[in-house]
Amino acid sequence: MKKQCPECNQHYELEPGFWYGTGYVSYALSVLYIIITFVLWWIFIGFSVSDNRFFWWMGITIGTLVILQPWLMRLSRALYLYFFIKYNPDYKNSPVVKFDNS
Residue ranges of the domains in the chain? Predict the structure, then answer.
C-alpha cells in the first residue's frame, strides 16, 4: 500500500501502529462472510447428520476465505481508514488530516 494518496497527499498511516486495528475489521468481515454462507447453505442445501454436508460447507467456506484473504485485507484497510478520514469534496483547497505523530 502506498504511503500517501497520489491525488490529495493524505498520509495513510496516521500514527505508528495505525493498521493494527484493521485486524478487527478483517475478523468482522470474515465472521460476516461465514454467517452469510451458513444461512445460504442452510436455505438452499440444508444440513444433515446423515451425510457430510456440514463438512462440505466448512471446507468450501474456509477455502474461499483463504482465497479472498488479500481482498478482505485491502477492504478492511479501506474501511478502517474511512472511520478516521471523511471524504472532503474540497480536498484540493483543504489541508490533509494530521494526527499527533506528525
Answer: 21-84
